[in-house]
Structure formats: C-alpha cells, structure tokens
Amino acid sequence: MSHRIVSRSLGWIAVSVWSLALVLGFGACRGKDLDRDPGEISRTTSLAPLVKSISPAVVEIRGWGMPPGPPIADPEAGFPDPPTLREWQGAGVIVDAMLGFTVTANHLVASATAVQVSLGDGRTLDAAVLVRSERDDLALLRIEADNLRALTLANGALDVGDPVVAIGNPEDWGQTVTFGIVSALHRSCPGIANRELIQSDVLVSQGSSGGALVNLQGDLVGVIVARRSGFAFAASADAVRRLFVTAQ
After folding, report:
1. Domain 163-247: which CATH number of 2.40.10.10, 3.40.640.10, 3.40.50.80, 3.30.1360.30
2. Catalytic residues
3. Model pLDDT for residues 222-242, shown as the tens digit of each residue
4. CATH class of 50-65+83-142
C-alpha cells in the first residue's frame, strides 16, 4: 500500500517538474520571438508618433485659373461660352521652413493664376510659383510665414518592399494618412515624361496629388503625382532636388 502511495507521489512530482519545464521553455521561446532586430517592425508598432511629427509639414493647396484649351461652344446660342474659373485642389509638402519652399504636383498650379496654401494650424497663405517641371509633374512654391515645419529629403537607395506612409488631402476630407510598401521602381504614368516614378501599394483618393510619401524615419522619399487603380505613384526626392537646382 505504502509502495503505491510513494509511486503516485513520485509520478505527480515528475509531472509537475515536466510542466514547469514546459512553462519555462515556452517563456524562453517567446522571449526570443520578442527580441527583434532594431530594424524589424512589430505588427503592434504604432505609426501615430511618426504621423504626428510629419503631418505639420503637409499642407493643402488650392489654385484658381482658366482651364487651358479653346472655349466651349454653346450650340444653342451660336457662340462660345464665356471662360469659367476653375479650381484645383490637392496637397503640398514644406521642404524648407526658413525659405518657405513648398513642393506640390505641377498639374495643380500649371494653369493657376492664384495659389493658396492652408496650414494645419488654420493659417491660409498666398503662394508664389517659383519653378515648374512638366517632366516630373512637380512645382516649387514659396510662402512667407513663421513657425513652419519641413520634411527632410531622403538620402540613400529606396528598395522594393520598403514601408512608406502617404499623407494627402483628398477632396476636402482633410489630411488623410495611408500606409503600404514600395511596389516597384522606375515606373511611368500617362502624361508624365519621368520614367523613374516610385510605385507603391498605398491607396490614395482624388485630391492626394502633391502629398508626401515618407519612410519610417520621417524623411520625404517622394511627392505623389499620380494614381492608377487607386495606388499612389510619386516623383522621387531626387526630382525635388532638381527643382532646387533650377530655382537657383
């Protein structure tokens, strides 16, 4: 009888020791799983701090002017309709806080005779168009204001698969943020001569032209100039640098 009791006791002790080993082993494995490489992104990592730091540099752009092309004829009246003032709306990115340099998509301001920039703090400012690039569909504007926030142009190679954040201003919804990866490089879009566009899988809406494409370090890797099937295509930071050279 006592032999059975001793055997059961030893059995329970063995089970307890085995269970404890499993718990400790699981903890060790889990610890290794959480010990990520500094460059690795956890699925639970929030982008909120990044967005808060870069969003003040992304602004709303509005341009007003007469659309290009011949006047539209009214068949009933027998003469052309009078020209109608048109409005273009999108986004822009402040790239030099001291000088007030702001880059946007050229097609937003190419036919505009008046351009305004609205900041995130509620200020609305007149903007001057300094230089335009039809090849890259980019334009460099200048605004005069204090306490501006600017984004730094990214340096270094951009690779397919790199994560990116897009901030635009679609259709009067206000500033909107989307997230994705670089899908391809050296792309082209109809109407844009530049064949070095950045293709991403970031979804954007109409009105996001001129918005920022930013890496996870908060640097500007591109300016959104087109969308195809809803996905953002951007002119690179190097294209923005070319605007600076032309402006000088």
Report:
1. 2.40.10.10
2. 107, 137, 209
3. 999 999 999 999 999 999 999
4. mainly beta
